[in-house]
Amino acid sequence: MSDEIRLRGLRGTGHHGVFADERTNGQEFVVDVDVRLPLGDLADDLAKTVNYGTLAVDIVAAIERDPVDLIETLAERIAELVLAHGAHSVRVEVHKPSAPIPVPFTDVSVVIERSSR
Predict the structure, then answer these.
(1) Is 96 a catalytic residue?
(2) Which entry of 4, 8, 11, 24 is 20 to 30 Å from 31 by CA?
(3) Which residues contact 33 (CB under 8 A, 6 or more apart)?
(4) Cα(59)–Cα(11) distance, rounded to whole angstroms?
(5) Set 96, 103, 105, 106: catalytic member
(6) Model confidence pLDDT, tens digit, residues 42-91
(7) How many independent structural domains does the chain possess?
(8) Residue 46 CB contacts under 8 Å (≥ 6 apart), including other chains
(9) pLDDT tens-digit readout, 7-38
């Protein structure tokens, strides 16, 4: 499927990670989402597509609730949420730009793709 709604750079503060200071202090997580669904016959009707404003709010809420150890788990949570909004499939990338890595780096991320079928 080639039709997509793309959300880039959704930001939220979460308390995810395996280290105590990550859980206590929290850090910013950045999420990119490709929502895949047919867009060809919408008839200008919001009810026939995914409301990306509502979805964005829900994704940030998913970042900011219920800490998990791994960003892989957070990506799964977000993918399930997007599919529940009516996407046929989704690509989710969760960035952890302040990950506790002892060498200089720009970003670390996890990418997953899931389908409702």
Answers:
(1) yes
(2) 24
(3) 6, 7, 10, 55, 59, 78, 82, 90, 91, 92, 93
(4) 9
(5) 96
(6) 767 777 788 999 999 999 999 999 999 999 999 999 999 999 999 999 99
(7) 1
(8) none
(9) 999 999 999 999 999 999 999 999 999 999 98
Query: Between the CA of residue 25 and those of 16, 58, 75, 77, what are the distances in Å?
Result: 10, 22, 21, 21
Question: Containing domain of residue 104, as a range?
Answer: 4-115
Q: What DSSP line would sit under 49-75, residue for residue?
A: S--HHHHHHHHHHHHHSS--S-HHHHH
The model's pTM: 0.93
Strands 4-14 and 27-36: antiparallel
Q: What CATH number is associated with residue 14?
A: 3.30.1130.10
